[in-house]
Amino acid sequence: MNTMPESAALPAYLANLNPPQLDAVTSTEGPLLVLAGAGTGKTRVLITRVCHLMVTRKAFAGQILAVTFTNKAAAEMRSRIAAIVGDSVEAMWLGTFHALAARILRRHAEHAGLKPNFTILDQDDQIRLIKQLLAAENIDDKKWPARVVHHVIERWKDRGLTPDKVGTDPSGEIAGGRAVELYAMYQERLKTLNACDFGDLLLHNLTIFQTRPDVLAEYHKRFRYMLVDEYQDTNVAQYMWLRILAQQSRNLCCVGDDDQSIYGWRGAEVGNILRFEKDFPGAKIVRLEQNYRSSEHILAAASGLIAHNRARLGKTLWTAEAGGERVTVRPVWDGEQEANFVADEIENLQRAGEKLGDIAILVRAGFQTREFEERFITLGIPYRVIGGPRFYEREEIRDAIAYFRVIVQPDDDLAFERIVNKPRRGIGDATVQLLQRLARARGMPLLAAAETIVTTDELKPAARNAVRRVVEDFARWRGQVERAHHAELAATVLDESGYTRMWQMDKSPEKDGKLENLKELVAALEEYDDLPAFLEHVSLVMENAEAAPADMTSLMTLHAAKGLEFGTVFLPGWEEGLFPHPRALDDKGEDGLEEERRLAHVGLTRARRRAYVTFAANRRIHGMWQSSVPSRFVAELPPDRVDVKSEPGLWGDGPQFAHEPARSFGYGNRRSPLIEGRATEIGGRRSDLSPGMRVFHQKFGYGRVVATESGKLEVEFEHSGLKHVMESFVEKA
Ligand code: ATP
Ligand code: MG
To answer: What would the CATH number be for the domain defined by 119-193?
Structure first.
């Protein structure tokens, strides 16, 4: 079976593998599980194994299927394989579960009741569809928001459950016990639309494989070898998909690390790893124990930390990289000082010849990136945010800022349009178009058009009331600009507009992150003198974002860092209440805590030579300083592997610490003249209409002008009676 040449004659691509790695690469036949810790070369084994299959002609590229966790990882793997085998890699089936399943589904769509050109709906569309269903079924979407129903359906799909298979599941009790019924209706609707959602990609594949043995046979024949990276984070549907495809060849190679399972909250089942041997009897298990990534202290610190988890298989890891630097543990006063410390350290490293691209800051929660971004911009350190937009480019931040812009600058139409119906408040496209027509005709901003139109009968009562509320809201908030503190005003605006609530009602996994970002935004406002100064700062930040140099430092969440490695890793915000994240503890107790600890372990094991853990004594939350306690994970790091670098007297010294004055950017207390009221009447009025004239109005038809008044008309319509309309919307008849 083993056709390996003598080791002296090993081809170059196998030459520098250690014995168990070589074993994993060359044991090509039968099920294989590589269960090994971070940085032991699992991904490298996978890549080498693919090359080996091709080089030894066990399979053509087109007969190999390899699954990665992200598109980025797939691209990386593709280029590393191409470096060894050349262009033939193109024929390989290499991608994420979603990408591969979509490709298969396109070829057999008809067996799933779809046409090959089916659309894959994004989350917004999915939720809109469910909303329609709720309305049609008279289910109160205040009580059962579409997002809640959507979330439940998504989780069922993760578990490979079609509506007929859900059976009795506690989450079926939502929506008055009609969740499963709604799920079935949703699936029907998708079919009529010739569409599917992400979960369907795998689910439809499963249905096709189960109902069409001929199709399944085709894939059994095609996929001679299958490989899966980050196997610990597969969900049940993905697992079933793999199992059914590998049924015949049994040449399934999975690599993973139970200590890096960090997607339980999204349906991943670490149990899949434990089941492997049972489902594939005779499976070979290879353990890799040599870590090639991290120096000794970093590896030992990470191992010491993860040893506090009870639910784990346990493993030994060693490295030939003796010594190195200990993990730097650095207490700081607050978030600003934390950002300053990290930025200074990065500048030092840069001076010492390190590449920015080899440095990463890994945060627990998305909102944490803001203070680092601000500092990097100030110092001109190029950075990118991986796996998501920069702070001020995030959807919820842009929305909130749009509200602030309209308050400061009432003729900012772009901002107004963005939020006029966000959250949904019954101002539909037709209403917005009417506002736009009026604004154009009268040469006035949209908000002014809105102010004017509510005094007429142009809009149906419901829409008119909705527009009136927006107009009144903005008038009230503008009135508070002088009196209220701007950060408080911002919070008020987000609350009173219903914007915060919109996200509170949201049930998507992004919800909490978005709410945290909004809080962080309000906290950020504290650093500026007033709203205009803050908005000015934001536009400068956005402008800065345009230049993209080649060498940049990376900011990302710990979740996004899976599988990556960096020379230097900064791990900020190791505080109770932030990391472990309280949400994980609330939802899942001890299991949640262990998943958080695995996340910390993933963070540390990304580092090759240097790792920094920082925590702040104070965080500003909702404009209030709160003192925080170091994360329990800090205490769990083995003391002999860390270097605590505390500034004398800093920690526990009380709040008398001199705080830097707010950055002012030279605005002082200057206020934008734009705040000080503005002319509502912009643009001229028509002088060609006078009482008695016959006119035509698109909605109300023919009528006669009774009175005119600054751009508005009172018209006695032939069919609709006396109405107030906009002058711009009538024609002389
Ligand atoms: P993770 O669990 O974080 O995904 P991994 O097990 O997939 O880690 P790899 O990313 O494949 O590990 O490898 C970690 C590092 O070790 C890489 O830089 C890789 O090139 C290097 N490496 C792996 N095996 C060897 C080897 N035999 N000799 C030299 N370097 C190696
Ligand atoms: Mg890997």
So the answer is: 1.10.10.160
